Amino acid sequence: MKNIFRRKKQQSPPNPLPGTGLHFLNTDKLTNRYTDSVNIQQLHAWKELYIYRPQNQPELHQPNNDIDPSTGKKWMYLIHMFRDPSKIRQEFFTTQFKNLLKTWDVISTSLVSNQNSRAVVGYFGFILDVPISNILSTNYKDIGFQNHVGVEWVKDEQGVLKPKVIKPYDLVDHINELTNRIIQSPSYILSRTDKMPAHIEDVMRLKKEFPTKMFPAHFLASFSTYNEIVIVGKPHVHIHPQGGIPPTGYIGVKGLYVMDNPQCQRYYHLVQQLAMINKVPIIYVDNPSNLFSGPGQKII
């Protein structure tokens, strides 16, 4: 079977973008063969997230607020969470996160809402403002995507760590292995997050609709309590050539999202530092349960 992200190692694509592992994402006619007009419609549905702003939620700006998000007004956010705050690199405290994001190829995020506020993994994270053209793959469960495949972190002349692509084919191989590239709407993703019957139903439906498509084995077999939305960080990359979708844009930062839990309180000062650097508000979302880094694996 032909790969929908077939690589061409014999030649380079025209006008490659310097320093990005996404060179080979759209180098042949098979790429995006499943991103048809239906998927383009679903992609436009993600524009709804533009209207939700953390600064409009003052009731969540203080820790230990004991507010049940499901009883309040509707909101939805894409969050890039941190599982291990001790591994946050120094540049997070010297550079605004929006400026770091534009140097990253691909970023793993989770979609949360007032009805699915705990569908994340980690202690806290950045709330992102993502152009729809940057959305690469939508998955109602964890697919184990790695953010910096084929990249090595090296110091520049100022001693700042920056990503350098050393294996340009690895990222597209990773995308091909783990993602399905079938764009679904935010409401669809949330309706199936943490729902085993929905997962079984979808597996059967996708196999019927795309009988020749080879879905990743872990997508068919695994189940998780949170979703994973994969987005592209670098601007000016064409990842959706159909339907008049423009190249990727710049990702903004709208706020910081904190799982308000006794386990998280040790990191409140760190979160407040990041909020000051990025000049964004913090929302504290009540989460009395334990935090996990994956099925059966506790963070602490």
Looking at this protein, list some descriptive labels.
two-stranded antiparallel ribbon; globular; disordered C terminus; 300 residues
Please, could you describe this protein's structure?
- The protein has 300 residues and is α+β, with helices and mostly antiparallel strands.
- The chain has one domain (37-290).
- 20% of the residues lie in helices and 20% in strands.
- The chain has helices at residues 37-44, 97-101, 170-178, 186-192, 196-209, 217-221, 268-278; strands spanning 76-82, 106-113, 124-129, 135-139, 151-155, 161-165, 228-232, 252-260, 282-286, 292-294, 297-298.
- The strands form three sheets. Strands 4-7-2-1-3-8-9 form a seven-stranded mixed beta sheet. It has a two-stranded antiparallel ribbon with strand order 5-6. Strands 10-11 form a two-stranded antiparallel sheet.
- β5 and β6 (161-165) form a beta hairpin.
- The protein is globular and about 50 Å long.
- Residues 1-19, 27-35 and 292-300 have low confidence and may be disordered.
List the helices and strands and how they pair.
Layout: H1 37-44, E1 76-82, H2 97-101, E2 106-113, E3 124-129, E4 135-139, E5 151-155, E6 161-165, H3 170-178, H4 186-192, H5 196-209, H6 217-221, E7 228-232, E8 252-260, H7 268-278, E9 282-286, E10 292-294, E11 297-298
Parallel strand pairs: 8-9
Antiparallel strand pairs: 1-2, 1-3, 2-7, 3-8, 4-7, 5-6, 10-11
Give the structure's gist in a few sentences.
By secondary structure, this protein is of the alpha+beta class. Helices cover 20% and strands 20% of the residues. The protein has one domain (37-290).
